[in-house]
């Protein structure tokens, strides 16, 4: 499925829409946080329902290397950074405006341990202990699968990825697909929660 016309700019590096910056307040796991958003990024007006569902169901991130796949303006990045000021949080997006907003929001809250990258610029040897993502389902199945197969194998041994996927946009079929493409000797895939029509999936790497 191709990106919908109104949402296609989320998945390009230079969105063409005028920026129209704004500030909003959001609740990130019990913290009221003031952030900057803009047009041309995912969910600029508020905290997306899927992201909110993920934040309600994840435990505190563990380890020293965290990853947010498709960071948008940075809600998951900020939540991880606020949860553990000692860990490195890697925020990845193809949208340069998203990366700029995430960087500015992290700086505004003193999160100097946040690093923002386009996918191809993430250091090749970096592995991740905790991954949080509201993956861009609407990019289409092929592109989504490529994204997940790029990042999930970079889980460190003992690491866990938490993904939120809307049930009616393929949450169950994505779980089945992950079970077929990831080595069962290394990865365990489970549905850990259902929250208001969203599936919360975990991918754990044993070794």
Explain this structure.
This is Methyltransferase. This protein has 207 residues and is of the alpha/beta class. The chain is built from five helices and nine strands. The chain has a seven-stranded mixed beta sheet with strand order 5-4-3-6-7-9-8, with helices on both faces. A two-stranded antiparallel sheet has the order 1-2. 37% of the residues are buried. The N terminus is likely disordered.
Summarize the structure.
Pfam families: MTS. With 207 residues, the protein is an alpha/beta fold.
Task: Identify the notable features of this structure and list them briefly.
single chain; 207 residues; alpha/beta; seven-stranded mixed beta sheet; two-stranded antiparallel ribbon; 9 strands; globular; disordered N terminus
List unreliable stretches of 5+ residues: 1-10
> What characteristic shape results from the CA principal axes?
globular
Number of helices in the DSSP assignment: 5
Question: What is the makeup of the main sheet?
Answer: 7 strands, mixed
The helical percent reads: 25-40%
Average pLDDT, rounded to a whole number, is 91
User: What's the N-to-C terminus distance?
Assistant: 34 Å
Please write the string of helix (H) and strand (E) elements.
EEHEHEHEEHEHEE
Instruction: Specify the structural class.
Output: alpha/beta
Across the major sheet, the strand order is 5-4-3-6-7-9-8
Rg is 16 Å
Strands, total number: 9
| Beta-strand percent range | 25-35%
């Amino acid at each position: 499925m191709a990106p919908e016309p109104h949402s296609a700019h989320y998945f390009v590096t230079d969105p063409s829409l005028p920026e129209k910056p704004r500030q909003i307040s959001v609740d990130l796991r019990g913290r009221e946080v003031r952030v900057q958003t803009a047009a041309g990024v995912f969910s600029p007006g508020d905290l997306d329902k899927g992201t909110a569902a993920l934040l309600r169901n994840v435990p505190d991130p563990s380890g020293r290397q965290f990853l947010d796949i498709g960071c948008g303006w940075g809600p998951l990045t900020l939540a991880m950074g606020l949860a553990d000021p000692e860990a490195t949080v890697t925020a990845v997006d193809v949208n340069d405006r998203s990366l700029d907003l995430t960087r500015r929001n992290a700086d505004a809250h003193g999160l100097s341990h946040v690093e923002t990258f386009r996918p191809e610029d993430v250091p090749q040897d970096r592995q991740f202990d905790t991954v949080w993502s509201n993956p861009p389902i609407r990019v289409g199945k092929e592109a989504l699968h490529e994204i997940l197969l790029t990042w999930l194998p970079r889980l460190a041994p003992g690491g866990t990825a938490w993904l939120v996927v809307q049930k009616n946009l393929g949450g169950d079929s994505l779980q089945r697909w992950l079970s077929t493409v990831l080595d069962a000797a290394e990865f365990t895939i489970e549905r850990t929660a259902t929250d208001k029509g969203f599936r919360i999936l975990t991918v754990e790497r044993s070794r």
